[in-house]
Design brief:
The longest helix has 28 residues, at about 325-350. With about 375 residues, this protein is α/β, with parallel strands linked by helices. α1 packs across α11 and α12 (about 275-290) packs antiparallel against α13 (about 295-305). The protein has 16 helices and nine strands. It folds into three domains: about 15-245, Aldolase class I (TIM Barrel), CATH 3.20.20; about 255-320; about 325-365. It has helices at about 25-30, 45-50, 55, 75-90, 105-110, 120-130, 155-165, 185-195, 210-220, 235-245, 255-270, 275-290, 295-305, 310-320, 325-350, 355-365, and strands spanning about 15, 35-40, 45, 70-75, 95-100, 140-145, 170-175, 200, 220-225. Bound molecules: flavin mononucleotide.
Length: about 375
Amino acid sequence: MSFPYPVGHRVPLYLAPMAGVSESPFRRLCRAFGADVVVTEFLSAEGIRRENAATIAKLRFGADERPIGVQIFGADPAAMGEAAALVTEVFEPEFIDINFGCPVKKVVKRNGGSGCLKDLGLVQAVIRAVAAHTHLPVTVKIRSGWSEEMRDPVTIALRCQDAGARALTLHPRTRAQMYSGAARWDEIAAVAQALEIPVIGNGDIKTAADALRMWQATGCAGVMIARGSFGQPWVFGQARALLEGTPMPPAPPVAERFAIALRHARMAADYEPDRRGAAIEFRKHLGWYAKGLPGSATLRQRLHAVESLDEVEGIFGDYLAHAERYAAAERAADDADDRGAGASLAGSAAGDGSLSGGALVAAGHAGA
Ligand SMILES: Cc1cc2nc3c(=O)[nH]c(=O)nc-3n(C[C@H](O)[C@H](O)[C@H](O)COP(=O)(O)O)c2cc1C
């Protein structure tokens, strides 16, 4: 069982396809930090075949992102075939991945994404149409089924393999679950056991140790990380170390974490010509990089208000110079909240207001 495209390691680590997140700058960063394979966010076959400018822009990638898969979605086999042909001819990624997992209403109502899972004949027709229009390997990403009643990942996966899929990623939740409940790794193990093609496990990997645990528990051929990469692209290097049986490098200290965030911000600024748009889009990443730091509430508040990526360095510098003040402000805000809760309890008896304004003043002071 080998991968149908070159992968750097015996157990490759994947950056998951994620709309609005696994864009070129983040893909490049994750590759630099040890992701072996990256995948674009899902792109509509209709948008590709009509050469919609926004869709085509998202197909751009650099040589340093390879090996890369372009993920497409749609329920019309002819349109999917046409899109695959265009992607192959113009962009030539290492593989084309078909999305059978997206749970979003707008997509599934036209039977796209996980909507296809209601009709396995359609799933197979889509895979065959795509495979017929490209010389590249065609892979699929599935959920465990449409609903709990229709949950049957092994049957779905076998049908995909039978139709010509050359590798398969399983996110073991149903569409009905969206992102709730635990991903059922036992289903990854069952699918990996049943298939001849490589099975990539996905779901609930929050740390490098989780990646190792998934591989050990399921026997999957590769491990795909989605939300666990948010604000910590170094998770790939850590996971690689654990898979190789070498000591895991620690998470970088705060100053280095900020330097990585700035590197990412500069890549995003270079990639996106609209400077303000780039900053607004990047706010979520900034929030993720700041998550968990002492006093991060105030820090994140400031980062979530940036209008230009040029502001970020100054905010980080201020935090590093005054980290204790940020933490103190957070404690003051918490205390004020506690007092506010106490006061509003007392106040509700007295018909009085709360003290939450104090918390705002404290936070604002620290942010200055
Ligand atoms: C913001 C976001 C966007 C996503 N977009 C896509 C997508 O475009 N294509 C896809 O196949 N899955 C998409 N997913 C699902 C992830 O690839 C992954 O299957 C899911 O998050 C479970 O993995 P995790 O528990 O490691 O996050 C998305 C998930 C998130 C959180």
